[in-house]
Amino acid sequence: MAPRSSPTARRRRLATALRQLRETRKLSCAEVGRAVGWSESKVSRIETGRTGIRADDLDLLLRTYEVDEEMRKALHVLRRQASHRGWWSTYGDALPAWFQGYVGLEDGARSVMIYQGQLVPGLMQTDDYATAVMRAHQPSVAADEIERQLAARAARQALLTSSDALEVWTVLDEAVLRRVVGGPETMKPQLQRLREIAGLPNVTLQVLPFAHGAHAAMGTSFIHLKFPEPGDADIVYIEDLTSSQYLEEPEDIERYSLVADHLRASALPPEASTSFIKCIADAMS
């Protein structure tokens, strides 16, 4: 089955290919800029995927790199695919600009490993739980804005059950389950939703209990994304209330991969985790 075609992932792939072409020819961004009449920062923005590239600009770069015709055609195809609008662009009014980049990468990922220490991940939230979180962040948020955000979240959640479903491995701290977001009438259905999602063939869900003590990810939550194309390097994504950070350096990826392994080893097995969630839900008044 062909992987999902995310324009964000395609842009990143094109950016990586252009950077590799430059590095193979042992040229700096400044040297390339001088050769084609651009600023060094423009070359850098293209190579980091922060901006797209026009067809004529791409041709200019490829002539500078003396690329053969076969590769030139392949990179132009990639550029056209990268310029398509993803489904999330429809929700530009509901998704912050800094988060749209992540949604595009998630849409093109093969798998994600999520560790969350505070709240249920967006891919697994019920509408009522999500609404309670939104109102906690923005008490004056309008009802129509909530509806738009819920619609965008529902579109993301379709990744869990699509024909080419995203593979998801999630470790939740016990605090996620104990914090009664929106009251018991919201939290109990949310816990039931987690149990249902845990039953999907592409989802593995584990709980890290308080009783297991200190662990390798204390103080942070993160998402580790892997992509279907061999040339697409992993990304670790971290966010706060108003911004996000992408880690792509090999040493960072290695560190977070090790942390993820420790979390999986420290958490309850999947079957015991769903039983743990049920016990918490049953005890909730």
UniProtKB/TrEMBL annotation:
Membrane-spanning intervals of the chain: none
Domain HTH cro/C1-type: residue ranges: 18-72
UniProt-recorded Gene Ontology molecular function terms: DNA binding
Domain of life where this protein originates: Bacteria
InterPro entries: Cro/C1-type_HTH, DUF5753, Lambda_DNA-bd_dom_sf
PROSITE patterns in UniProt: HTH_CROC1 (PS50943)
Protein name: XRE family transcriptional regulator
Originating organism: Actinomadura rubrisoli
